[in-house]
Amino acid sequence: MSTEKDTRAPKAQQSHTIKKPETEGTIGGTISIEINEKKLTVPLGTTILEACKQNQIHVPTLCHHDDLCIAGVCRVCVVEVEGMRTLQASCAFPITAPIKVKTSTPEVRKARRHIIDLMLSEHYGECYSCIRNGNCELQSLAKEYGVDGYTFGHVDKPTYEIDNSSYSVIRDMSKCILCKRCVRTCIDLQEVGVLEAIDRGDKTHISTFLDKPLADVICINCGQCINRCPTAALRANDPSDEIWNAIDDPKKHVVIQTAPSPRAAIGEEFGLEAGHSMTFQLNTALKRIGFDAVFDTNFTADLTIIEEGTELIIRLKKALVDKDPTIKLPQFTSCSPGWVKYLEHFYPEYIDNLSSAKSPQQMFGALIKTYYAEKMGIDPADVVSVAVMPCSAKKFECNRPEMTDSGFKDVDFGLTTREAAKMIKEAGIYLPEMPKTHFDSPFGDASGAGLIFGATGGVMEAALRSVVEFILGVKVESVFENANIIPVRGFEGIKYVELPLGDKVGPVPDLLKPIVSNWDWLKGATLKIAVVHGTANAKKVMDDIKAGGKFSECHFIEFMACPGGCLGGGGQPIPTSLEIRKLRAKAIYDEDAELDVRKSHENKHVLRIYEEFIKDGPCSHLSHKLLHTHYTKRGKFMA
Amino acid sequence: METTVISKATKRTGPVLFADYKRGDGIKKALQMRRDNVLLEVRESKLKGRGGAGFPTATKWMLTAAATCPEKFLVCNADEGEPGTFKDRVLLLEYPELVFDGMVIGGYTIGAKQGIVYLRGEYEYMLKSLEDYLEQMRKDNLLGKNILGVEGFDYDITIRLGAGAYVCGEETALIESLEGHRGESRNRPPYPVNTGYNGRPTSVNNVETLASIPHIMMRGGEWFATMGTDKSTGSKLFSISGDCSKPGVYELRWGATIRDILKLVDAQDTKAVQVGGASGFCIPESQFDRQLSYEDTSTGGSIMIFNKKRNMLSVLKNFMEFFVEESCGQCTPCRIGNVKLLEGVEMIEKNEFTFEYIKNLKELGKSMQIASKCGLGQSSPNSFISILENFNDEIFNTNRNGGSK
């Protein structure tokens, strides 16, 4: 396992992440302090900022982000600590003595105002032409501190060229205020390490390796940096203009699939609290703005479960029964394109462990331009396929050269939740007021198993709901109450679960009969699985596998690039925090609990695909042609 | 690189550092004492950090010694980068015995097993001779295992080169750099005495501070404290440069006035003295009776003399250009603030300014002094504020029309 020392974060930013005391007793009890002459008692080690938050005292922040390690570089949160010569950054000051703090002295207010003025002097761009207008932390601070002019001037020309080389993330460094949230996200939260500050003094800027364009470095496109950028220095590569063109073109048949995570979060873009699912309102809105059909990505999530589950059974059988040494276990999930690219760069020797099953988005793309086009009698050349995703990496994924199995680009555009909301607003629609409508035929509404793909642990839970029934021949509800597989749920970074299968196995279901004749070989076996989210956690697990640790004994591991899984994706509404992600997860699990069909193999529309189209069943020849893919050993050094 | 060898042709003299000392004597003396008694001796001397900040050395050592951790470090800050400072160069070249003996005594006192010299990149030419010197110390058992027969006292010194960043003279940025990271200061607390190099308790001391230690060992803290002023004991090395006929490194007791210094180096027609380097203050003639001491005009040793022919605005511009380039760039006040101050100087130069804006910039300077993350940004506005205030007449009135407003 990776130790703390291995982390690549610079010590200035990482060394003293101030751990929040879990209980009062953990690091030495509590301490009495004074903030603004109010006596308070806080756990020892609490930061001044935390103490203020807990006591409803507002201190402005900018470089601070709850998800990230402490930086203390923007200096907006400075406060006065009695007896200290200089002001202290409240985000970076752990309370270990009975200090007296003042959060709003004349010096403090003046210093904050100066700092905001200085940032504005180097921040290029006008708010009204900015994608983050109305949701920019610098703008909010300027308003909060009554900035009414550019005290120290304002740049009138961009200072850096915009880097739009990446399909996913655009960097506009002229808007960067060097809070280093992106650096801390990339190096510390995700442990990818693409972004770092280089040069010094007034030439300091955030850069990639050798200042290369983002497309030419080991960026995994997770977009977590976008979610945490306080300004618009980082943004997603927005295809909405091209989508409008397609919608406006009468010859084009424009369809859109919506993933579960955007539906659980898009309400936030319309001012709702996190945790309101907008699935069916979104269907109406998308139809009204001109999409010809709206499909549920969960449909192909169900299909993914069948394909990926079958692949796992094949691998297990070949490894356990046929003793085939070429079979790679554990099998890794492959539906998170950020994770896939991470593995291709950092652990290329393990790409054979990735399930060859495409992600739900790409499976759908392949089906839309084959099965659907054929069924509807439309020339697939005229079909434009869009996907609303919580993800910036999906934009890269749909542009992978191998994703053209339908004979066309399987998915034309990946649209983030934020961009979808923008299109809806542009059409004059207020989403929360929309009536509810169902998804379009022939794919219809999908199962709850596909739905929970949005949360970390969801793919595993969906897979288990089917695998348990396939192998044991009993209802999953008899093993896990209400089919809720709690051990794989939750936000713990790495979850490891052992499932003893017992001695009673069931009959092989029809769908799998071409693959296995019986389950006797699994009698008494223990299924070892793990669920991992965030690439920093993935790194730990991969290093453990490399070292032959307990994760190398696993059979199946779910990996998601983003913290929290898809619902915390780089295309989701800004801001993000653990609380927001938990609320989104709750929305998803609640919606699942309401559904009648909650297992992929019970989705009638999926079964119909195997009856009508992929007649030889999962992992068959046609299935491999359309629904499976291959990967590239990229390595860390790019030409 | 050109190798400069400064010969000891003219013997330096001074009350402490430039006095006679025989290599190893301080170590021998210290090793006969208990660690806490060494600490008491240093405390009695009231020795303060010679880098400029003036933190009591005994307190720093005591905190490091008190930290409960089996691994500790003593770091000698030889990243002498303050403009106008060259005293550490003299100590390292001519008095390495003082510096290294001080490091051994410090290591013994705080319980470190390793000392590290963080040597300024530009001083690479000394590396060979210093390494040779350390090798000789190892041969003489002044370094290595069971030093001078003291069972269990194992200590060695390594030398690491900086890469040229001014900010790495700041102790936490220095530690970042030692660890192989970008030279940026850390948040404090925690302080290096608790969480320093590799997360271990670390005492970072200036070259001159460490060089004073062997003499304190030999002649006692009480003797040391008799020199200087009440709050500034002992002597100080001053690197004196600029408009004078005898520039160089001088050792003086604390408490000398600026006028004393000017006389010593035979400076004529002096208009201004910059005390403490680019990050220090500029003193006009009317204040030449001020004392050099921690309580009055504190300095790490840099004294720059400007005669009446010098243009103070150019002097200031030079300093501000230095800070614009040398800010590490992480915190807002220092990174952008210095740029704005420099722009202000250029506006005055071009006679395109308003007094209101200059007033704004002085206010900005004050915010920088209290809101910057480390000493660099906290001290960079000092010259801006002091030069504009002390030479207001010259800058705004002489040969100019007093601005556009």
Describe what this molecule looks like in 3D.
The complex is a heterodimer of chains A (639) and B (405). With 639 residues, chain A is an alpha/beta fold. Chain A has 4 domains: 4-115, Ubiquitin-like (UB roll) (Roll); 149-236, Alpha-Beta Plaits (2-Layer Sandwich); 240-299 and 361-433, Rossmann fold (3-Layer(aba) Sandwich), CATH 3.40.50; 307-355 and 447-627, Fe-only Hydrogenase (Larger Subunit), Chain L, domain 3, CATH 3.40.950.10. Helices cover 32% and strands 12% of the residues of chain A. Chain A has 20 helices and 17 strands. Chain A has a 5-stranded mixed sheet, sandwiched between helices. The longest helix of chain A is centred in the middle third of the chain and has 24 residues, at 297-320. Chain A is globular and about 80 Å long. The relative contact order of chain A is 0.12. Residues 1-25 of chain A have low confidence and may be disordered. With 405 residues, chain B is α/β, with parallel strands linked by helices. Chain B folds into 3 domains: 25-226, NADH-ubiquinone oxidoreductase 51kDa subunit (Rossmann fold), CATH 3.40.50.11540; 235-307, Ubiquitin-like (UB roll) (Roll), CATH 3.10.20; 312-396, NADH-ubiquinone oxidoreductase 51kDa subunit, iron-sulphur binding domain (de novo design (two linked rop proteins), Up-down Bundle), CATH 1.20.1440.230. Chain B has 16 helices and 9 strands. Chain B has helices spanning 25-31, 35-45, 57-66, 87-94, 96-110, 127-139, 171-178, 207-219, 221-226, 258-264, 312-326, 332-349, 355-371, 375-379, 381-390, 392-396, and strands spanning 73-78, 114-119, 156-161, 202-206, 235-242, 248-253, 270-275, 281-284, 302-307. Chain B has a 5-stranded mixed sheet. In chain B, strands 3-2-1-4 form a 4-stranded parallel sheet, with helices on both faces. In chain B, α5 packs across α8 and α11 (312-326) runs antiparallel to α12. Chain B is globular, with a radius of gyration of 22 Å. Residues 1-7 and 401-405 of chain B have low confidence and may be disordered. The interface between A and B is large, with 44 and 47 residues.
